[in-house]
DNA sequence: ACAGCCATGTAACTCGTTACATGATTAC
DNA sequence: GTAATCATGTAACGAGTTACATGGCTGT
């Protein structure tokens, strides 16, 4: 039926199921705010070409108006789009998450460099995690008030809470690794503790 | 200096820093066993083409012998390879992990389908997590005995422990989401509890 | 006036995948 | 003998990226 659309296409469709119609630019912003934490935030260029494809397939309706002197196109999901999205959700196994964890990859081969480098990498990661936690916390706050069962942000809130816990856990893991690395420092010239 | 190699290239270099020399086939197996949990397990074809590139760059030494009637090529990391790996580890910011979490993506737009579908998806995920935990536990067991500071599997063990915790946390998150979904059932025709 | 944001796209390119192809060795 | 595993590749393709290009609108 619907010839296969990349997952990112469905992600865009999904972002448009919250009632409003958005421009490509706004989709990017929304993706940066939420989607990026557990899916990729696509490049602008990809968003535009994906929007093109979805519109051609009739899954989105383009609403081109001219706002002042410039052309602005907003997109809304169509009936067909909602059907396609649902068909995908119900008919495709979700599959296991793919994790591209450069920090873990490098930790794995930590023996190939000095402990100090690995330590620094983990510290950097912890700092970045903190920033991500801040961002996501702010997102979570923005969902309050409409996050109960039956309310529009119910599912986004579930996901945000999941994400917050995930980042918190990553922080703990990084710190545990740091602590474990510290045990090596013993033979390093410094006194332990 | 070394014109950029994709991260997967460094991952392969990294797999070859444990002392032995491996064939492409064996690299794939090792990747399936460990790398796949926090990095992608590359397709065979990519491994071979990556091996080709790394060899051309002098970062790997190919050892082609004929084992019986068939051509078998083993690869070992060279001095230059170790230098390149280390340069990469020390000179490139690790960057934030990229997560492609289809389950979370679909949970986010859970309102676009029936609760039962979402519930089933989460149950499937929990089952897959259990399988992954089993696999990784077995890997972890295989590292015992050489996982103390200074020993060869020190870092792989750190990473495996991290991964085990991560999968356990994911299981908890999925179960929490399931529990929270259960609360919707209330308005569903059934009596609460 | 000028920077920064809003807004939309094209072109070139690379990573990585699937499908295809081949053949030898090992286990049952 | 035949299926599974070992072993190595080629070809076509697609998703997604970076770099480039354009231009209007907004705040200072």
State the main characteristics:
homodimer, Arc Repressor Mutant, subunit A, 2 domains, three-stranded antiparallel sheet, 59% helix, 11% strand, elongated, disordered C terminus, DNA-binding
Describe this structure in words.
The structure is a homodimer of 193-residue chains. With 193 residues, chain A is mainly alpha-helical. The first copy, chain A, has two domains: 2-91, Winged helix-like DNA-binding domain superfamily/Winged helix DNA-binding domain (Arc Repressor Mutant, subunit A); 102-184. Helix content of chain A is 59%, strand content 11%. Chain A contains seven helices and four strands; from the N terminus they run αβααββαβααα. Chain A has a three-stranded antiparallel β-sheet. The longest helix of chain A is centred in the last third of the chain and has 32 residues, at 154-185. The radius of gyration of chain A is 22 Å and the shape is elongated. The N and C termini of chain A lie far apart (64 Å). Chains A and B meet through helix 1, helix 4, strand 4, helix 5 and helix 6 of A and helix 1, helix 4, strand 4, helix 5 and helix 6 of B.
CATH superfamily of the largest domain in chain A: Winged helix-like DNA-binding domain superfamily/Winged helix DNA-binding domain
The Rg value of chain A, from CA coordinates, equals 22 Å
Shape of chain A: elongated
Q: What's the average pLDDT of chain A?
A: 92
Most extensive interface: pair and counts?
A-B, 66 and 67 residues
Ends distance of chain A? 64 Å
User: Could you please say which CATH topology of the largest domain in chain A applies here?
Assistant: Arc Repressor Mutant, subunit A
User: Topology as H/E string of chain A?
Assistant: HEHHEEHEHHH
Oligomer: homodimer
What portion of the residues of chain A fall into strands of 2 or more residues? 5-15%
Number of domains of chain A: 2
Number of helices of chain A: 7
Q: According to CATH, what is the class of the largest domain in chain A? A: Mainly Alpha
User: Within the largest sheet of chain A, what's the order of strands?
Assistant: 1-3-2
Main β-sheet of chain A: number of strands, strand sense, barrel status?
3 strands, antiparallel
**What share of the residues of chain A lie within helices?**
55-70%
User: Which architecture of the largest domain in chain A would the CATH scheme give at its second level?
Assistant: Orthogonal Bundle
| Strands of chain A, count | 4
Name the poorly predicted regions of chain A: 186-193
């Amino acid at each position: 039926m619907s010839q296969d659309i990349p997952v990112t296409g469905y992600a865009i469709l999904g972002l448009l199921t919250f009632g409003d119609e958005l421009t490509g630019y706004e989709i990017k912003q929304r993706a940066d705010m939420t989607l990026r934490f557990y899916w990729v935030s696509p490049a602008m260029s990809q968003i535009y070409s994906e929007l093109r494809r979805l519109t051609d397939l009739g899954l989105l309706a383009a609403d081109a108006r001219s706002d002042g002197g410039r052309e602005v196109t907003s997109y809304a999901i169509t009936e067909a789009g909602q059907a396609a999205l649902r068909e995908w959700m119900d008919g495709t196994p979700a599959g296991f998450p793919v994790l591209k964890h450069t920090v873990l990859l490098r930790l794995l081969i930590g023996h190939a460099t000095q402990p100090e480098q690995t330590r620094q990498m983990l510290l950097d990661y912890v700092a970045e995690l903190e920033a991500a936690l801040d961002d996501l916390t702010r997102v979570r706050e923005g969902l309050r008030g409409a996050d109960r069962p039956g309310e529009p942000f119910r599912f986004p809130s579930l996901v945000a809470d999941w994400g917050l816990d995930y980042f918190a856990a990553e922080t703990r893991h990084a710190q545990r690794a740091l602590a474990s690395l510290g045990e090596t420092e013993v033979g390093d010239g410094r006194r332990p503790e």
